[in-house]
Design a protein that fits this description.
The termini are far apart. Helix content is 40%, strand content 14%. By secondary structure, the chain is α/β, with parallel strands linked by helices. Bound molecules: pyridoxal-5'-phosphate (PLP).
């Protein structure tokens, strides 16, 4: 007999995007922000006192909760700090799911959800999106204890309307977790739903919009009863003193945040246009990446060719995504190098097949 629980023996574990060691590469594979975090973050980091490190951090991160509550126009008790948005997902599975309490979500979506389901040993009810990534009607009728909708969705970049999510929250008997990791690049968010619904949890991350993937910080927004319950399953000190200080400085600098996210959104528009001009099929994205469909199912070949030119994008060998590349929006310079490389690759392809 193995040492591990059977479901752990069987699960493959989450496969993170490749993090190349070289620094002279163009890295458009894990949806990091191309811009650094606010200068206020670096200032706070330089001023961390030894005393702050000697002592345990505030277990609830109240300094950040206060700042996040103000920015989102919710109450202090409606916010919970997390060690990255992924930490909140782990807590939600722990708190709501077990052998008899399944999770449900539309697919394709964030590939961490099925991994967490297997670890928690709960059934995952996966309902396929249609070709346009509309919310599947069946999602409302699964009787799952936890339903997750990633909005904007990864890796499609598509966006489900707030009204549809409100109807879903109303129909569900279980909890609806709306994963808004990419919402900083969208035109609307679901924050106000928590005022109306006692079963809605919103996930936010500082990894994408705030350029802090290396810090590990995210947070939940929900009615205080849900927050209290989730706190029972969190690690005792789930956010560290340095992360807390840096995250608070980042979220308070809304001016810098607005400027950088605006630049990414503008670059996204141009990138989508240029990719379409090259013959890729690119649905409207509301996130900081685009999903590019390649003709003749040559996504893996283009992926390899780009890699040879030290440009990293993401290719998922998964149902419904075999012919697609997910490309993170980079700086204008990175995006134009990508487009030049793609032009070169596609012209070779045509030459060799002629
Ligand atoms: C990035 C991401 C998260 C959270 O990531 P953290 O780095 O842990 O904050 C959650 N959901 C999706 C879909 C993401 O892409």
């Amino acid at each position: 007999m193995g040492y591990f629980r059977k479901n752990i023996e069987k699960v493959r574990g989450y496969e993170p995007g490749f993090q190349p060691k070289e620094t002279d590469v163009i890295k458009l594979n894990t949806n990091e922000n191309p811009y650094p975090p606010s200068p206020q973050v670096l200032k706070v980091l330089a001023e961390i006192s030894p005393e702050r490190l000697r002592k345990y951090p505030d277990p609830l991160g109240n300094e950040f909760r206060q700042a996040a509550a103000e920015i989102n126009s919710v109450r202090f008790e409606d916010i919970m700090c997390c060690n990255g948005g992924d930490d909140l997902l782990t807590m939600a599975f722990r708190a709501f799911c077990d052998r008899n309490r399944p999770v449900a979500y539309p697919v394709p979506t964030y590939s961490l959800y099925p991994v967490l389901a297997k670890v928690q040993n709960c059934r995952a009810i996966e309902i396929p999106f249609d070709g346009e990534f509309n919310l599947p009607a069946k999602l409302a009728g699964t009787k799952a204890a936890l339903t997750i909708v990633c909005n904007p969705n990864a890796p499609s970049g598509s966006f489900v309307s707030i009204d549809e999510l409100a109807s879903l929250a109303d129909e569900l008997s279980g909890v609806l977790l709306i994963d808004e990791a990419y919402v900083d690049f969208a035109e609307a968010n679901c924050t106000h739903l928590i005022k109306e619904f006692d079963n809605v949890i919103i996930l936010r991350s500082l990894s994408k919009g705030y350029g802090l993937a290396g810090l590990r910080f995210g947070y939940a927004i929900a009615q205080s009863n849900l927050i209290k319950g989730l706190m029972k399953v969190k690690d005792s000190y789930n956010v560290d003193a340095i992360a807390l200080a840096a995250a608070t400085a980042a979220i308070k600098d809304q001016k810098y945040f607005a400027e950088t996210t605006e630049k990414v959104k503008k670059a996204r528009g141009l990138l989508m246009e240029q990719l379409r001009d090259l013959g890729f099929e690119v649905p409207q994205s509301h996130a900081n990446f685009v999903l590019a469909g390649c003709k003749d199912r040559k996504a893996d070949i283009i992926f390899d060719e780009l890699k040879e030119r030290r440009i990293y994008v993401r290719y998922f060998d998964l149902p419904g995504l075999e012919d697609k590349l997910r490309i993170t929006v980079g700086t204008d310079e990175q995006n134009s190098k990508l487009i030049s490389a793609l032009k070169e690759i596609l012209s070779q392809e045509t030459a060799s097949s002629a």
